[in-house]
# Entry
Amino acid sequence: MSSAVAAPVPALAARMGRITVSATAAMVMEAERLRASGADLVDFGAGEPDFPTPEPIKQAAREALDANFTRYTATGGIAPLKDAICRRHAELCGSSFTREQVLVTLGGKHALFNAISALISAGDEVLLPAPYWVSFHDMITYAGGTPVIVPTDEAAGFTLTPAMLTARLTPRTRMILLNSPSNPSGAVFSRELFQAALELCRERGIWLLSDECYLQFVYDGAPYSVAGEPGPLDNLIIAGSLSKTYAMTGWRLGYALGPKAVIAAMLNLQSHSTSNPVSFVQKAAVAALTGSQQPVTDMLAEYRRRRTLMIEGLRSIPGISCTLPQGAFYAYPNIARLLRPGAATPMEFSGRLLHEAGVVTVPGEAFGTASHLRLSYATSAAQIEKGLDRLRRFCAGL
Ligand SMILES: Cc1ncc(COP(=O)(O)O)c(C=O)c1O
# Structure
């Protein structure tokens, strides 16, 4: 029997008010809705490789399933995978992590979440260069911290100088969070910047958290990790992921590397939430890290070709300027000269572009800048050409 007085609705936890639905997710949802109703869309929104996972990795997962490797494993990952992560990182970057310094997680995002949860308290400030990846901001606020935004230099390819970091330090600064190559800007920070950031963290007794999700997708030179620097690394935590490197986004496999005490704290947290990463995915990850790396080289070569197509195309559209991404697979064009009533913000521009021209992009507001769009070029050359053509016509008609 229904009562006349509505029962009070139980409230969500207050901390839920500190996070937002990401604009990326909102745009993806709207695109899905349109697609379901039959719209022909060009998708520059997705932040993931369009390649299938390489066959040997899939084979290793099948073999693990056939061998019934389907039970709980050690919470922080199986020893052969920890060793494979350390070895691969050492080969690539000259680091020297040991098994006790690794935590295997359910994706790079999980490693970052565990690290920020373990290290950030209410009132702590985290230096966060903008444009930043959406989730950094909300992971910090969820933990009770305050992101202190450090605008980067667009004219210098969205890079930073040590002075730009130093200027934002306060007695409450507890962490510097760097992501290079960057999502969304494609910026690659210099070795000097990382060395200076590490030195600042050592002097101040604060953390450097480095997100290396796109470590291997650099277009000039070799992958660089600050973990290869000499001297004590007591202040450094690395978050890494197999998602993009091996086209394994759906498999959910990432890792953290850092001081034993921090890894132990993150392990403790993980033991009370997700427990171990998926058992047979761990076997597949060993195959990915220890097998032929040719697929990674091939994917990077393809991204390089697509980068040229995307950036040259964007630069040829009147009103758009675009820096050349040095890594990852995103273009981050500046559309300030095209903003006008009716398309006054990247959010409005991106919304109209979706509904009127069928092109999915992510507005710059999501990444903390006011005049940009993010376009992923992890899609086929044919789609890139088609999307650019639509974008050109849309801009001409504004
Ligand atoms: C900068 C950055 N870090 C981390 C991640 C996390 O990736 P995953 O959780 O799939 O490993 C992403 C994914 O888009 C990313 O762009």
The mean pLDDT is 96. The first strand starts at residue 42 and ends at 43.
